[in-house]
Amino acid sequence: MKRYLPSFFSFLLLTVFMELLVRQGAVGESLFPAPSSVFKTLGELHGEFRQAFFETLLNVLAGLGLSVVFGSLIAFIFSLSDLLKKSILPFAIFFQTVPIIAIAPLLVIYFGFGSPTVIASSFIVSIFPIIANTLMGLESASASQKDLFRLYQASRFQTLVKLRFPQAYSHIYAGIKVSAGLSIIGAIAGEFVGGGGLGAMIDSARTQQRVDIVFGVLLLLSLMGLTFVATLALINKVILSRRPFASLPQE
Amino acid sequence: MKDALGIRIQNLFKSFPKRDVIQGLNLNIEPGSFVSIVGPSGCGKSTLLRLIAGLESPTQGELQLSPQPPSSFSFVFQEPNLLAWRTVYENVALPFELSGALKLISEEDKHTRIMNSLKKVKLEEAVSLFPHELSGGMKMRVSLARALVSSPQLLLMDEPFAALDENTRFEMQNQLHQLWQEERMTILFVTHSLFESTYLAQRILMLKGEGAKLALDHKVDLPFERTEELRTSESLNRIVRLLSERLRE
Lengths: 251, 249
Ligand SMILES: Nc1ncnc2c1ncn2[C@@H]1O[C@H](COP(=O)(O)OP(=O)(O)OP(=O)(O)O)[C@@H](O)[C@H]1O
Ligand SMILES: [Mg+2]
What we know:
Strand content of chain B: 15-25%
Bound molecules: adenosine-5'-triphosphate, magnesium ion
Strand order of the largest sheet of chain B: 5-6-7-3-8-9
Helix content of chain A: over 70%
Order of helices and strands of chain B: EEEHEEHHHHEHEHEEHH
Structural class of chain B: alpha/beta
Number of helices of chain A: 10
Oligomer: heterodimer
Number of helices of chain B: 9
Shape of chain B: globular
Strand content of chain A: under 5%
Largest sheet of chain B: 6 strands, mixed
Radius of gyration of chain B: 18 Å
Distance between the termini of chain A: 13 Å
Largest sheet of chain A: none
């Protein structure tokens, strides 16, 4: 907990600083709302905020969940063949650089308005880091470890399950961590075009010039991101305390 | 104890794309003997061991283990090669999980054999520790226990003690020799240390030069029991001197 104190204080300090800045009239209220008015809006519209938050959260969780399941499944299958692997890895890396906001409109055409588009958008951006990292992790066993398994005539499947997968653990974890952040971005992009959730809230606040709402949403989004990171770190810690998969020092 | 394995190598060639490492090697290894292999770095010692283990296939020539398969051998690498996420016990149990030939053994038997081989390397106290909780010497002993759990008739060892400090290395050497005296499996032991090769082996092979020619095949004439006094004895030193001269020639 102590580690987070400095960042908590800097957040607090920044908030107070912004508050003063706005009150002194150094920054216009229409450009940057006073933190106090953001909190006030959050309180007044808490019903709407809560509904939008949980709608987005559900879609993000669905998108991320699908990514983890399908991403690792695809990586597992492709890792069994060198040819397949070589044919997908470049795409997995390349697709990470395609901006989701450019694809999102297409998704509306395919899936219509609402959740399916949002989930698809979240899924598409978050699956590639999982594929790429898992594939790389599955390759990370050392030559002599592989030799050891060959000496005992381990089958391909045994080598995958008993050597390559556990050896890939820390890569997979890193991949999921990246994907967790991206899945939120993907969902928001999806909601911009497909409607619903916090994304749509930003969009409509934009048309009404309500910066305080936009900032309220941003606050909730970073809260969501932080919760994800903290949850993943906790799960990782529990797993590592039982099985020391990672050879790297723990974070 | 099952019969130890003998090795017969005839006119063996091994080429990699850029180098012909072994050219026309002939060699007979007696079952139950302790043979060490020395030679300059890069001369092909590891390659020879890997050929015998079937990790590489010969370009040409014959390599026979007798008696014929199903014969069992184990390989001990320079690194302990342990799986970080498995306890000492689980690491030693690995061969039972992988090798088809060993799967048929009953669970009870497996347990007895795992505990036995951990006892042989004096690690029965450490069964539930993970590799990151072990010292370098302990890791190597786990690696050795894993090699022993399949009751190998041949033990191939590639510079297993090279990374250990001197005290630990001496201790490991004594343990290994003791083990060999009790079980009399065949041991092929690659090392850079001329002292180590002399102290442990009955026979020393020196590979050298282009094509890993057999530069020396020396029968070690030392008392069967290895004692600490032997390490500094004149008779051992004489052999080391001979090896050292041959190596520099
Ligand atoms: N898989 C491989 N592909 C290509 N060349 C190889 C391969 N393995 C070994 N070599 C080459 O074969 C030669 C012998 O290597 P080897 O590892 O057998 O030597 P060594 O006697 O064990 O050396 P050291 O004492 O340093 O361990 C070296 O020149 C090495 O570069
Ligand atoms: Mg070598």
